[in-house]
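[job 0412] stage=fold_complex status=start
inputs:
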Amino acid sequence: MSEFTLRLRRYDPQSGEPPYWESHTIELEPHRSVLEGILQARGRFDGSIGIRCSCRSAICGSCGVRINGQPGLACHTHLDEALERSSDGMISVEPMGNMPVIRDLIVDMDAVHWKKIQAVTPWLLAREPVPEREYLVDREAMVDVTQSMACIQCGACVSDCLAMEVDPDFIGPAALAKSYRFVGDPRDSEHTERLTALSEDPHGLYTCTHCFKCVDACPKGVNPMGQIMRLRRIAGSDHHIEDRNNGYRHEHAFVDNVRRNGLLHEADLLPDSYGGKFNPRAVPELIASMPVALRGLLRGKITLRKALTHPHKASKELRAIFERIESKPERYELNLYVSGTDEDNEPNEPAPAEAIA
Amino acid sequence: MPEHDVLIIGAGLAGQRAALAAAREGVSVGIISKVHPVRSHSVAAAGGINAAISVADDWRSHAYDTVKGSDFLGDQDAIEVMCSEAPGEVMHLEHIGVTFHRNDAGELDLRAFGGASMNRTAYVADITGQAILHVLYEQLMKHSSSVERFEEWFVTSLIIDDDGGCAGVIARDIRTGRMETFAAKNVILASGGAGQCFKPTTNALICTADGITQAYRAGAPLMDMEMIQYHPTTLAENGFLITEGARGEGAHLLNSEGERFMSKMAPNKMELASRDVVSRAEQIEINEGRGVGPDGRGIYLDITVVPRKRTLEALREIVNIGKDFAGVDITREPIVIQPGQHYIMGGVKTDKDGRTPIAGLYAAGEVACVSVHGGNRLGANSLLDTLIFGRRAGEHAAARARSLAMPSVSEAQLRRDAEMIEQIIARPRAGRRISEIKEELGTTMNQHVAVFRDEQGLTAAREVVVRLKEEAATAYVDDRGTVFNQDVLGAIELGYMLDAAETMVVAALERKESRGAQFRTDFPERNDAEWLKHININCGEDGEPKVSYSPVTITQWQPEERKY
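[job 0412] stage=fold_complex status=done
writing structure:
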């Protein structure tokens, strides 16, 4: 048994008081969960501590919170682990972000998370005719969509999505992962319609800024950003959806830019995304980006020379990689969730004798 | 006042399936749940769902396995319904989007499971319950215009009208504390089991016997309450479930001598005997000093014999549980498990259409007892039970609604329940804490109403439960607010658990034989001559449990000696 100090963010909407911090000292073995710590505090000292929780084993998705600033499940975070991440010797627990707080650690998921899920037509639009028995589909395809099916709707990825912080209307990582669950499902009949809607939505598929926060936050390995990138590849490369948000062109300009330069030439990327510097569509975009470029110059983040010239050119090796990939008849999607890593595929080692004895 | 033709309490698999089935019949449907539907405990069901869908299989074989698994206490007419309708139900789930794993031909893959004579368990890795629950919720979102959802509402009581029929419920909006009377032509209880009466348990914190006790207090009989399933593989560390799918994939159970001890109790089925048999075998090893782990209270589950790639694909969840909650890589070393409380076969007595003896009151899923599980439930039959009888209850209730007028309900009961809650909040800080009483209940039940039982222990347990009921009447709460006052709901749940626990102990004392999950060391044999019957418990006028019996329905399988 060890002692831990929990610092809980409390808020009572009926009190008229602002949120405040409250500390409790609890006693548990270090590998027990933060949730068990909170439940001990609630059971022993203060029954009014509000937190949603049910299964205690990271499957029901109720107890999404922020622990020392990191989103995750309280039941899925060990006390000792949480303490290691703490700067003041206390384990701070507060409600998730990007969602309104109802009370203490309880947030209004309906107002944000579920509304976004509802917006992606979150049910199978099954291919006709419906067979008498099961749809015959590839084994791998079902394993693949199981990764997004493994989402427990805890909201941890929504809590810390930076793009959503800037654009609250962004459909977000959880809803996009949910979308992939249908786009990746061979039984669904409306892949193109789904992808078109997500691509055309100004707060949709191309709003994600690849910050990886959702990948770190997810307690179930759903890899929401990975699913978003996969949706983009399918939308662009397989369905050739050229959206009004310029997401499609931007992705292509990005790839071409790297193919040409080896390293990204940022000054070219924006005009190229709009068809090149002299394309009429690019002019307003270039003008609109001037203040940002100017600020960058003034603060020394970029130099005029770097912005205008890009000395780097793609190496022979890089060109070979492009040629190798692009010569394949079909786009190849590396999916470790389906294939497993090399290590996963190793034969079993015999169990060590002392473990049995 | 909200009014519905069919009102469903609980939004796990049984409740959601009932709602969708009733809505399909075109009647007005409401569904109330104290948690968001995807938080329901069905989410934790791991291993799969049984159905004789293979061309080599026959539903009668599934039915026989279920009858034998039940130790011949299951009602065979109900078992026939469940098993014969299973293939159609699984195909329906597939068609609405469940991502069942496939074989190389693209058909549903089937895995081995305990007590089954062939591979008949369809699965989604080891998150089958989650996958089905989330797909049903997708359907609820799709049909949101025909199913009205009341998420995070807590039911405080059933309304019984002057004719003795069920006419609705009283519930509290957890977010605001507002009480509401729900009038309904039919109420379907689908509020799950009672695992929190035990500590440890694999069950979630929400499994607090709500529906079982609501029905009991309203006058409905409970049946087979002595039949409490101890799952053979729960994590010794904290009681978490390790799916039977692990043994289905080929994992071994080993004692401290490295011996596959199941050869003694079940030489043919070995680790895949029915759960009561495996749990008992483990407990014998532990009691006789061949247990493992720090205090010798565990058994090794060795999954390293399963190919690593297969484990990582088909048992992902327990790989994570091993790593996150026990610090063990189950693909490299054995993990210490023990039998742990998991499921209650008993519940509110119903017929094949989910009807209880109270008109207008239905029950389906773990809250109910049809009885398809009898003395012991087979793994992967619980998901099936929830879906088949959830659907049947929904359909039957919808048909019944057509010929009825909406009952008129007064607000008197609402005032009574609101006062009850105010009184709990107003209690002086003199009695015990809710959490202490719950803790004592759980450890007592786990000590005396477990794998092995005897009269002395059960009598002691009953005395404790009766005392705790008195103490609960004065136990105090800290929270005086109305927004998300979980504290006061905890006090009400404690009352539900204590009533249900009492009926379990009374039934276990009553059954003086050993059958299925009930093993009495003082009556170690099965006794068909005297005890091939269900024990029913009603709440008497004085609030005391009253025992009666009902016959077991036998159609084609006569009781025989049970060997695995």
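[job 0412] summary: The first strand of chain B starts at residue 3 and ends at 9.
[job 0412] exit 0
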